[in-house]
C-alpha cells in the first residue's frame, strides 16, 4: 500500500476520533414513519407458507388439511415426500414449517390415537410462536369436530380424550427466544445504517471545512482518495460485526452455527452497498445535515420493510415487491440463516448473488460520481 493512500487513511482515522458528535436526523422522519408504520408495523401474520408431507392420502388427512386451509393462517405451498425436502425448503426460506401426516393416520384416528407432526422454523421467533399456538388450536378444533362426527355415527356421547394430537417441533430456536431473531438483525442495521451515515458525513465534512480543495491539489489519485476515505469505515464495520457477534453469542447465547468466514464475507458484501450509499450521498450534499437526510431517506425503508422488525408476510404485496430493492432484505435472510440454521453457500446463493450485484452497482455508481465531482 503506497504512502499517499496510507496518509489518507491515517488522516481519516484522526478525524473520526476527533469528532464524536451525535448527528440528528430531521423533518422527513415523521412522515416516512407515519406511512411505513401504518402499513408495515403489524404482527398479524397471515398466509404463512408451509409444506405438507401427507403419507396417508386418505379422506381423513384431506379433512385435516382443509382445516388448516380454513384457518387463513397457513398457506400450503409445497407437497413433499421426505424429511430432506422439508429441511431444504426451510433452510432456503421457502416455507416456515411443515405438516407431516403419518401413513397410519386414518386408522389411528378411528382408534382415538391420531397424531400428526408440525415442524416449525424457529429462527423467526415472532412467526414461530404464533404458528405454534395456531397449529395447536387447529388440531384441538379439528379433534372436537372428529369426536362429534364419531359420536353422531355411533349414537354415543363424545369421548373425553380427543382423538388427534398435534405434536410440534421447533427447529433452530426451540425456546423461541426473540434475541435469536433480533441480534442478527442488529448486525445488519449496524453495517447498513451506521456505516452509510458515517461515510456520507466524512466526505461532506471535508467540503464544509474547506479542506477538500487541499486534497484535490495534492498529488493523489481519485481512486486513492476514495479508498482512503472508505477503508477506515470498512475496518470499523468489521469491528462492529465482531463486537455484536461476541456479545450476542456469549451474553445472549445466540448460536453461530455456520462457517465464520462465510459470516464475515457476506458482511463485507453488505458493507459494499452501505458504503456506496454513503459515498453517493456525499456527492449530492453540501452539508453534513443534507448528507444525513439523504442517507436517512434510503435507510428508513430498510428498517421497516426489510424484515428487520416485522415479517414480510404481514405486509401488503406492493411493499413486499419494494423490499426487493433493499440490500438489507437479502442480508437479513443470510445472517439469520448462517447463525441460526448453519446453512452453507448453496442454500443462500440467490441472496448472496443479489447482494453482490447490489454492492457492485451502488459502489460503482458512487465512485464514478465522486470522481466526476472532484473533476
Describe the structure.
- The chain has 2 domains: 3-41 and 177-374, no CATH class; 48-171, abc type-2 transporter like fold, CATH 3.40.1710.
- The protein is 65% helix and 9% strand.
- The protein has 14 helices and 5 strands.
- It has helices spanning 3-18, 28-40, 59-70, 83-91, 105-110, 125-154, 178-209, 212-217, 222-250, 260-283, 288-304, 317-323, 327-341, 349-374; strands at 48-54, 74-79, 97-101, 114-121, 164-171.
- A 5-stranded mixed sheet has the order 2-1-3-4-5, with helices on both faces.
- The longest helix has 32 residues, at 178-209.
- The model is unreliable at 22-42 (pLDDT under 50).
What is the compact description of this entry?
The protein has 375 residues and is α/β, with parallel strands linked by helices. The chain is built from 14 helices and five strands.
Considering the chains and any ligands shown, give keywords for the structure:
alpha/beta, 14 helices, 5 strands, 9% strand, single chain, 375 residues, elongated, five-stranded mixed beta sheet, abc type-2 transporter like fold
